């Protein structure tokens, strides 16, 4: 694996292990909320729109963190700033341990800001230290994110029962975040902070490729966070128990793991990015249409839809980051491009759970809300066609 252009005593595989530890915390805090959403609504007396606002606020703050990520990384060094970003995730988890709507929303905002910052910084660190295997490294840390999300969604309800309340179930995810920061800190300290040149700290929004990646990330992020928030409540509305719906969400998350691991690596082998991005998006759209048209199919049940949707969103996010890594010249440019793309994507995704909740309240059903996800898939398809398979940046 290619070492950084900066002098460093840290081996690439050590950097990768540290990134995997940090990345495990970048979806767990968010994934632990949807299985508890109906319980939170009942205990706090909130509407579906307000319940969606909790997740929407977190994702919108992810957008804010993404936009700020390149500047923060340039100021403090991407590696050191990355540890601080995951520290924010831990702080937000602690705040969500207070069983009140204000602390739930406030803690979710802090969690979102930390995740947004970390996502951009991760992209730059991969480009800087693991450039020759950017696709595999990106898939690896996204898989780590998904493992954290899968565990969080599967154990959210049992933890709530065992610990005595939904707030404790949310707060528990501060612990692994703090452990990951402790693991990463000595690694980051061995990497020198680059001189502040002031170059490439601005978001390259004028670049056509950057705008297309923003459209792509908006589409895949809306589909991910829309289903992350409303898949479990949707099937609770079909008569499933919260535990069953939580397990369905866990299956959706588990399916994302092989998709995230293998799709970028397969695309990297022959630079067939458009083929793999199109194939996996088609799976996601098929699962979404199936869940809307036939929520409870015979024999296989909704599990087949969850698997197909999981393939789509599981591969979508790392494929978007991989194509950025291929076509940017260095870590600073990669962080700037991903900062804009993720910022736009998370802003769109942050509005989606709220919009879906409002539509559910207004129509007292889910079809209009699911139509939001189909529109997002269409936007992602447009970006895939336009990005194509142009050669990677040397």
From TrEMBL:
UniProtKB keywords: Membrane, Transmembrane, Transmembrane helix
Transmembrane segments: 47-69, 81-98, 104-126, 138-159, 165-188, 209-232, 244-263, 275-297, 303-326, 338-360, 366-385
Keyword Transmembrane listed: yes
Statement: the UniProt record of this protein carries the keyword tRNA processing: no
Pfam families in alphabetical order: MFS_1
Residues annotated as domain Major facilitator superfamily (MFS) profile: 13-394
Domain of life the protein comes from: Bacteria
PANTHER family cross-referenced by the UniProt entry: 2-NITROIMIDAZOLE TRANSPORTER, PTHR23523
Name of the molecule in the record: MFS transporter
Classification lineage: Bacteria, Bacillati, Actinomycetota, Actinomycetes, Pseudonocardiales
